Fold this protein.
Amino acid sequence: MFDFLAEQNASICGGGHLKRREFLQAGVLGAVGLSLPQYLAAKQAGAVRPGHDERACIMIFNLGAPSHIDLWDMKPDAPREIRGPFKPIRTNVPEIDISEILPMHAKIADKFSLVRSCHHDGAAVHDAGWQIMQTGRRFTGGVQTPHAGAVAAKLLGRKSDLPPFVVLPELMGRGGGNLPNGQAGGFLGKAYDPFALMADPSKKDFKVPDLLPPDQIGAARLERRRKMRDIVDGAVKNFEASEDARLLDDNFHAAFRMMTSEQARAAFDLTQEKDSVRERYGMNRFGQCCLLARRLVENGVRFVTLNSFLTVFDQLSWDIHGTKPFISVDQMKDLVAPMYDQGYSALIEDLHERGMLPDTMVTTLSEFGRTPKVNPAGGRDHWPQCFTVSFAGGGVKGGQVVGASDPIGGFPAERPVAPGDVVATIFHSLGLDPQALLEGPGGRPFPLTDFGTAPISELF
Amino acid sequence: MMKYFSIVTAWFLCSASAAEPLSFQRDILPVLSKAGCNTGGCHGALAGKAEFRLSLDGYDPLTDHYNITRETRGRRIEFADPARSLILTKPTAALRHKGGKVLEPGSRDYQLLVDWIKQGAPGPRQDDPVLQRLEISPAKAVLNKGDRSQLKVMAFYSDGVEKEVTPWVRFKSVDATVAEVDDGTGEVSVIGYGEGAVTAWFSSQIVIARVTSPFPQQIAADVFASAPVRNLIDTKVLEQLQQLNLKPSPRSTDEEFVRRAFIDTIGVLPTPEESLAFVGAADPGKRDRLIESLLARPEFVDYWTYRWSDLFLVSGKKLRPEALAAYYGWLRDKVEKNVPWDELVRGVVTAKGSSVENGATNFYAVHQDPETMAENVSQAFMSLSINCAKCHNHPLEKWTNDQYYSFANLFSRVRAKGWGGDARNGDGKRTLYVESRGDLIQPRTGKPQAPAPLDGEPLPTDDKGDRREVLADWLTSPDNPYFTRSITNRVWANFFGRGIVEPVDDLRVSNPASNEPLLAALASFVVENRYDLKALMRLILQSETYQRSSLSLPENRGDSRYFSRYYPRRLMAEVLYDAIAGIVAKPSSFDQITLSDGSTAKTGIYAPGTRALQLKDSAVTSYFLETFGRNEREITCECERSSKPSMVQVLHLSNGDTLNENLSAEGSRVSELLPLPAPELIDRAYLLCLSRAATPAEREPLLALFAQAADGEKRALVEDLFWALMTSREFLFQH
């Protein structure tokens, strides 16, 4: 076993940057001792299927709610006011047509699958959509259901020196409501909140804020600081029952691991990528976050939430109401679709080329869909009754369409899929049993997803 | 022709029915509500479902009746054969119904609909009895984990009729960790410990039933009999603790108390001299004297002006600099003079004139249309969120769409000349005045509602006076239950880290207090003391409840809201920033603000050494303050401020420049203390950061480190000592 804080830890293990697999083989699982008892306990409880430890998930959350009819579920035969201005194009899968504004998606349609019959009965406001799609449940009875990634972090633990659950570039902002929006640890506790990058990886001088100590603090001083802090912290017992204080401790442990880890620093270092690769993803925040997500998964992060936008207020997003300050359907084609098309397709292709796709699920979600009828301002409004989500990798067979919507994309016509089913699918890919029980608030058993939901088996 | 036919048929059938006359609003709408027909996920949605639309939860009975009986050629009702009506065949799933089977054929509710159709499907009438109030029983119950209890709800109508309506009530548990409720039967099952509650919604009114489930431990009665009691807070808290079987923790030490009181009252740490003097004093009344001195300090004004600025949205993202300064200045003046809260609120609600001369008018620059004004007055001063009622009846509260527009109509005559609202351009000068005419149209009816405060009497619409005067009377009256409780709860939350009602901005009926008798008693106290906030603060600070230790006992570990001990929490962003700046002796400088679109602008109004708590503006650029969860004042909500730790904060403290740069800088505190011998240095550092001396268990290993250090290393060692102290839990939290 090697000492994390030793300056030369890289060379003890043979020098250079360790690949993820080698790291694991070196017995690091024992060194990540914090999570091993949890992991084993979870395995014993039947919550974790063996043979899935390589699995990871990248959840792309398309904040604002993209219009399913203009992107993935075209209705060329519907009346003009419904089908919108775009035409469908063929893809490399004969059965799937996709919007002309996603041409790069068309070349990789054999890698992803669409679920066109997703729906929910939560309120048609962004906050409710975030809550229900990221946790699989509505917010009721004061119970704060955790994000799927937080559940994964709890049951699977960390795999490396990086935190197991990360959000890029940061958590979403407010949606106008006053509800929790399912992005974090919920009742599992804030220790399972995602680590937020808090920076824009497309910027020239991008680095994780404060990841590294100042130059003059070497490993020896770091260690001494930690020892002194332990001395102080040990003196007062008043924080034993304080959840926030425990969280602070957890944060410190996790921060220490991350900043003393060669691997962690390297994972966040985008200058290690060739320029051509960075440009393939697109030099914008979304594209570079996609690239960073791949690197994080390569380095042992289990779950990455990638928010394509951060707020619907005063900023560009998928929320195409048409009235100022929101953009219209047409403007989406110029301002949003190209960046998304490029970033997503780059991510899928890159994962495929590196052989990572079978073990990495990439899912694209949104709060809801958008109204079948284009509104007078040339936009569409919120529509939770029917929308499209997509899955790729992580055991999913690409090139399929699951479910169908009615001729105007208003309601599911076949195989309706609920948010619980979506989240169950993610858990299934990660090797977690959706009916396994968590310890919920007040100690009540809490299944990962509700009774009556199930993974979308057609995808596997 | 159709009309004639149906009338004849209806009359014919009428004489054939035996049931008593049914009322659409009293008897039929509740059936539709209970079956879920008019909920937001079904026909109550904005667009309805399958071309059939009902008003959400039945706020528009007239239109509902029309849609059921007359719309689409009246095909939903079959008078000749009621059982074949769509209104019955669909919900019973006799015909394909996407909503599933929500009604059982032959059930009581089914029969009610049949009888109603037989009676000719009568609609709402002018003389219909009106639901006046609901009563639930048992309204309060003390039960044990595992117990069950059946709730019963009675409805009282204006015609004197009293009816049990339990089968049509929508039941919901407020806190599913304590008690759950079966929505179908109204049966409560207790599954945890603490204070639980169940809400019962019927016909746009809500009542609440409370369930107390004592913790399983046994606490001897004399523990409570002999517990120290200073004032009414302790009486009420101890009563509840006894009922819940929670043992109160002992009193805090003097070191703990001095630091805590300083931080909670004025947002600064005590200096080493102040801590030593307090701890060393022999005077038994020293805690009271400390409280008085804190309430009189100049930093008190900084701190509380800053706190109330969160409520008033004093932000450079919303106001131009000159107007912003006037807004802040007005508020600060009031805090300095300890103006009673009701007077302060009256002043801002009825403000008129120039935005740079009467700073209070900027409240109406930040909220510029009647609906926004109404929502924010309600949120800020009554902790009530009425936003939902803008479009339909409030689903969680008793406020109707009509009441919303009555309330908003109080602001419809407020006008302004001058600066429009662009926070990047213009001089910010704006003159607020009140017109003598004008009303707000309610979209749903196309007509204005008579202006009226939420629960108050309507004003005559032709009255030419400033309607806000009437509003201010109603708002700040001691009879207004929300106003007093709102401010009481907010002040309480400052000292305890959580309100008696949580969240602090959510005083609705369906969000009960964790200790209702306590809040009620405190509210009375505030009224008796004429809204003097310092009097309330004094009462809180003097109470044994506030002065309890944060050390948990096995017999109160499960408590997180009943105040059996003090709850540690992370320091507020601004307090932390100032504390660090004070300790490292490096004055901060703020010279930039960040606007809504991300652009920045220079600001020269803050001299070097300005403390974060003295900032007039939440838009001042500061990575530290943002990362540590400052309230960005986008909306009126305490929820915008976060005190939860995060890894990003930890990384910043550990590696960022706030600590490191300032510790290693020349002329910093480290330089100042360097010449001292190790034992004194250590003690001084502890006093500065933690307001206490090091314990022997701490001093020993630290002295060892100092002894081991090489000559040139002392500086680094002292920096590391301060680093260790300032990243410790004890420093970052108040406890």
Summary: The longest strand of chain B covers residues 194-202.
